[in-house]
Design goal:
single chain; 446 residues; alpha+beta; 16 strands; 35% helix; disordered N terminus
Length: 446
Amino acid sequence: SASNQNGGRSGARSLSPSPVSDDLQKIDVNPPKGTRDFPPEDMRLRNWLFHNFQEVSRLFGFEEVDFPVLESEALFIRKAGEEIRDQLYCFEDRGNRRVALRPELTPSLARLVIQKGKSVSLPLKWFAVGQCWRYERMTRGRRREHYQWNMDIIGVPAVTAEAELISSIITFFKRIGITASDVGFRISSRKVLQEVLRCHSIPEHLFGKVCVIIDKIEKLPLDVIKNDLKSAGMSEAAIEELLRVLSIKSLTELEEILGGAGEAVADLKLLFSLAEKFGYSDWIQFDASVVRGLAYYTGIVFECFDRDGKLRAICGGGRYDQLLSTFGGDDIPACGFGFGDAVILELLKEKGLLPPLNHQVENIVCALDHNLQGAASMVATTLRGKGQSVDLVLESKPLKWVFKRAARINAQRLILVGTTEWQKGMVGVKILSSGEQYEIKLDKLE
Ligand SMILES: Nc1ccc(Br)nc1
């Protein structure tokens, strides 16, 4: 027989609504390419990590700030050929504005400092933990978002600020069990590059572009680096001298080449002597090849690496004394770092240092009769009022189910609300670890 639109026989009118309407469609339940969900077990690890970020920031007297994930694209448009620019997650909004998902936090921080102007007193010590984005066309399976911890000191020209920032990162590492045997900091100053470029009369405006090219020295063949430097306007002689200086691994040798009068050597010597006083000399080394890939750094730059050499940089940062003035703000010195949430977790996994983090609830409360559901809600509310966590069983369930759930949520106590006990104003308590059980007046329960 002919089937009607509901798949039934002709003449027989289906009373139920059509099984499949136009609105229903099977959606992709995975998150967008390059992004992550945080189911409870991953969220617990993320919260643990962020709690340590926040605790260290508190120990160092920093104030928390945040900014919109969506920013004007103009904040990130720099002409130095940075990867961060090539991968900008940008679009035109419905108001025809060019906007971007922030790829980093520093420009937003600079914008807010300028916005605050004279209403804030320097130095500012601000920190943020925020999601940052990049759009990689060729998703080589790489992520398009990560969370970054940033700490920034605004208004301090001396390298005491950089020494403090490095100390904060080391404090974080110590909190989570990472030692100087696991990781190290490579430290240099872009003033090294600057002094070499000046010796060869390379114009200042090429500085950022040259730094971005040099940052790729470990990732690209040397002849590509040389060609890029030549295209950027450097002579063969300047390139050779630059590469020679970049291979220096000791401050003594650097001083021999650059002399002791320049800012680069002075800054680095002071930083290493402060490190001695902080007690973290074992964590750091001078390495002239460190330049970092952001165009706006102007002085000390540093990055943290895993000594086994298996992972990408764990974090990085430096001084950016010109950024605020390039945004039209005053000439205010600044330095900071970014610390992503991904590589550190890979390192902790490598080192067997991931913390055991289970869901835990102090109480599971269950009515033994459906007429006592209200009473169970009162018990739950009483306990919650005393700061106790409660998983309230919300439907009539067999006790076997309740015990299974109690085990699954790592409940410490089972509170049973039964008719006989409740008539006496009492509830049943079972300590799930020991099996001990007793009855108690509700107002005595704590
Ligand atoms: N800048 C940036 C943003 C997002 C990811 Br994932 N990596 C780097």
